[in-house]
Design goal:
This protein is mainly α. It is 66% helix and 0% strand. It has 11 helices and no strands.
């Protein structure tokens, strides 16, 4: 429908405009941060004002008795990589979590709630997947395939939420991976040592996507999902099933031949120093945050655009 095309066009324009505005706004805020407080003028400091005191207001009788001993977080990582690098890795992981939080929230908006239909539910991804098998479906089969695809999308969203919750509860494995990557980038450990640590940590980060791989933000091919494939096969007739089975056999043979060539989970994030990674993840986070804000705005703007379109269509019909 013309109205749908208009909404899609407006949505695309606002995505890029909104993302650019968000980045400019945040960079402006960062550059205009207030300067650090000036140190006190020498000779004007009151020693009594800086002397630690007990609850009664008196100076403590034991050295440092008025100070609480600072707890060291992730002591194993601190011992291996130092406190400064460990703290920086924690900050980068926090940015990764925020980025993935926004990505999951956008997925939720696309699949659930009142605005879901407005974003199309990625029906084109389903049609591309069906086309790749060489199978032609009837209208009834198409309807059932859409139901299977919707179930597949919900499973994918649930898997992403589960992996993200696990990362929030225990960020230490990802911190360890990023610190090992940082050490490797500065040649403090060998490639073999890094690969060994990467392999150990990989299982603990299963399902957490690599936010620097743009392919991870595209819909996954449902034909890669066994549950979807089985359900899809059941709705086919004999001739269609033979075509489908041959297509899947070819796909599996190609996947086996290219096994390990394309890894998408976060354990295969590119090797780089923490400062570069902080910049890359921070930029990606700003873009994702911008996309999310645009989608939230479109959720509110969509009904207004549709109403205006209906009024125009009604006027043209007259």
């Amino acid at each position: 429908r013309p109205m749908n095309r208009k909404i899609t066009l407006v949505f695309a324009i606002l995505i890029f405009t909104g993302a650019a505005c968000v980045i400019a706004f945040r960079l402006g805020k960062e550059s205009s941060a207030p300067p650090a407080t000036e140190p006190a003028v020498t000779g004007q400091t009151n020693p009594a004002a800086t002397e630690p005191r007990t609850a009664s207001g008196l100076a403590p009788t034991e050295p440092n008795a008025g100070r609480r001993q600072r707890e060291v977080r992730d002591p194993d990582l601190v011992d291996q990589y130092g406190e400064t690098r460990t703290n920086l890795s924690r900050h980068v992981v926090s940015d990764v979590v925020s980025l993935l939080d926004d990505a999951v929230a956008m997925g939720d908006m696309m699949l659930n709630g009142e605005s879901a239909g407005r974003f199309g539910r990625n029906d084109w991804a389903l049609q591309n997947a069906i086309r790749s098998t060489g199978v032609e479906l009837s209208d009834e089969q198409q309807s059932r395939a859409r139901e299977l695809f919707a179930e597949f999308q919900q499973r994918e969203l649930g898997r992403s939420k589960e992996a993200l919750d696990k990362l929030k509860k225990n960020p230490t494995p990802l911190m360890g991976l990023l610190l090992a990557s940082d050490a490797r980038s500065r040649e403090e450990i060998t490639e073999t040592e890094y690969a060994a640590q990467q392999q150990v940590i990989a299982d603990e980060l299963d399902g957490v996507i690599n936010p620097l791989d743009r392919n991870n933000f595209r819909p996954r091919d449902p034909m890669e999902d066994e549950t979807f494939r089985n359900g899809f096969s059941e709705l086919l007739e004999d001739g269609q099933k033979e075509t489908f089975d041959n297509s899947i056999a070819e796909r599996e043979a190609a996947a086996e031949e290219n096994a390990g060539e394309r890894k998408t989970d976060i354990s295969h994030i590119p090797v780089m120093d923490l400062e570069s990674l902080e910049t890359a993840v921070g930029s990606a986070r700003k873009m994702t945050s911008g996309f999310k804000q645009v989608m939230e705005g479109m959720s509110n703007l969509g009904p207004i655009l549709e109403q205006q379109g209906q009024q125009r269509d009604g006027g043209n019909a007259e």
